[in-house]
Design brief:
Blueprint lengths: L9 E2 L9 E6 L9 H15 L3 H6 E6 L3 H13 L3 E5 L5 H9 L4 E4 L4 H18 L3 E5 L5 H18 L8 E5 L4 H12 L6 E7 L4 H8 L22 H7 L4 E6 L1 H15 L5 H7 L6 H5 L8 E6 L7 H9 L2
Parallel strand pairs: 2-10, 3-4, 3-6, 4-5, 7-8, 7-10, 8-9
Antiparallel strand pairs: 1-2
Helix pairs in contact: 1-3, 1-6, 6-7, 10-11, 10-13
EC number: 4.3.1.17
Keywords: Cytoplasm, Gluconeogenesis, Lyase, Pyridoxal phosphate
Subcellular location: Cytoplasm
């Protein structure tokens, strides 16, 4: 399956939400379990469309570095398009996530390095050159910093406006999690396409994976010394330069929350909506609770519309949710 339209239900079951109308953009329902299916799938399709030589096309093998979710999206899309995909993951990636990538049909899953940066560097500088030397047409798939990837993610915004309806007021704010910034760039690009470039966007990170917030604080593109958050899917130590550029707009608000709050978002979403997501997504959902959204955007009214991007993610289980519930 390729990326498709995801649901946009309103969230009404929680008594905490009294300040505005909340809509959940359910990207967890994408084929790979996350929004990554949009951007990664679009990159693969765009690249194959450029390849007119049949022999070259048959030799194409996609390679991507990932904490897991981009890898899953790459495998799903490559399988649909009839090409193999190899995934490079850092040593911090859980066996649970690796098993999911293998089960999805990856040609291989390679573990290397203590961070995504190390895994990505090894992939580009060692693995891909060796594959090309063996006669493959090895294609590097950028997990977040690429215009084709952003084009794919931008369709999310177009869908939101379509689903709300032409006679409805546009949303007052869109909330999204930020790792490397691919989803964020896509949302900003999508808002330009629907002629609402100044719509409020909340760019949410966890403490210990707050590379965007760090860059904004320092006034220049900056790199975290290490990723210390449990939200490893947000584990890009440096965001895409375009994400940093977008984040400096007055319509964008950077928000950083703790791992504990991210876990809370996961547990509450599971309780209220029966939806399981990982902390990288839960941190955005957590804005719905305990008055956080109203605190950040005090001008919101009960009629205001806020879209929460439920970006998904597969690094979650009932066991983890149970542990987080017990530790509250």
């Amino acid at each position: 399956m390729q990326a498709g339209k995801s649901s946009l239900p309103s969230k009404t079951t929680s008594t905490d939400i009294i300040h505005s109308q909340i809509y959940l953009k359910l990207e967890n329902l994408q084929p790979s379990g996350s929004f990554k299916s949009r951007g990664i799938g679009n990159f693969l399709r765009a690249h194959l469309a450029k390849s007119t030589n049949q022999n070259e096309r048959k030799a194409i093998h996609f390679y991507i570095s990932s904490g897991g979710n981009a890898g899953l999206a790459c495998v799903h899309a490559a399988t649909v398009l009839g090409a193999p995909a190899t995934i490079m993951v850092p040593k911090s990636t859980t066996e649970y996530m690796i098993s999911k990538v293998r089960a999805a049909g990856a040609a291989d899953v390679i573990q290397y390095g203590d961070s995504w940066v190390e895994a990505d560097t090894f992939l580009r500088e060692t693995v891909i050159p060796k594959a090309n030397a063996k006669g493959e047409c090895a294609i590097y798939v950028p997990p977040f910093d690429n215009s084709d990837v952003w084009d794919g993610h931008a369709t999310l915004v177009e869908e939101v406006f379509e689903q709300l309806g032409p006679n409805e007021q546009p949303p007052d704010a869109i909330v999204c999690s930020v790792g490397g910034g691919g989803l964020f760039c896509g949302i900003m690009q999508g808002l330009e396409k629907v002629n609402h470039p100044d719509l409020q966007v909340l760019a949410v990170e966890t403490e210990g994976a707050h590379s965007l917030a760090l860059s904004l604080e320092k006034g220049e593109l900056s790199t975290l010394p290490a990723i210390t958050s449990i939200a490893t899917s947000l584990g890009a130590r440096t965001v895409a330069p375009q994400a940093f550029a977008y984040a400096q707009r007055s319509s964008v608000r950077s928000v950083v929350l703790s791992d504990a709050v991210a876990k809370e978002g996961c547990v509450r979403l599971a309780d209220d909506e029966r939806i399981m997501v990982e902390p990288a997504c839960g941190v955005s959902v957590a804005l719905c609770y305990n008055g956080r959204l109203k605190e950040i955007l005090p001008n919101l009214q009960k009629t205001s519309k806020v879209v929460i991007t439920v970006c998904g993610g597969s690094n979650i289980s009932t066991k983890l949710l149970g542990e987080w519930t017990e530790s509250k």
